[in-house]
Amino acid sequence: MIHLDIFLRYFDGKTYFTVEQWKSSKDQKLAFIEREITSKDQIIREVREEMKNKDNSIACAMVEKELWVMDKFKKSPVYDAVMYIKHHNGMKAA
Question: Would you say which domain of life the source belongs to (predicted)?
Fold first, then answer.
């Protein structure tokens, strides 16, 4: 399993937790990470739907790229690590 410090730095370069900070409130941080993933995914999908009927190929391409990045993240070992940690902490996985 990947080291948690590396995992969190990979997930969000702005949010970095030390091992001690992570251990002090794992459940809160996991909930934060899942909210961020879900929120970004939902926003991207909503914008994508709005852009479907508009003639703005550049904006549509940008939204498609964002969605591709999110889907790629969800298939990555990092996302799997979130689900693995949540499962072993007794939290409900997405």
Answer: Eukaryota
- Domain residue limits, the chain: 4-88
pLDDT of residue 90: 56
Which strand (E) or helix (H) includes residue 32? Answer: helix 26-52
Q: How many CB atoms are closer than 10 A to CB 81? A: 20
Nearest to 65 by CA among 77, 81, 51: 51
The Cα 65–Cα 61 span in angstroms is 6
Looking at every residue in the chain, the average pLDDT score rounds to 64
Whether this prediction's pTM lies above 0.85 is answered by no
- Assigned token pair, 25: 């409130």
Cβ–Cβ under 8 Å, residues 32 and 22:
no
The whole-angstrom separation of Cα 27 and Cα 24 is 9
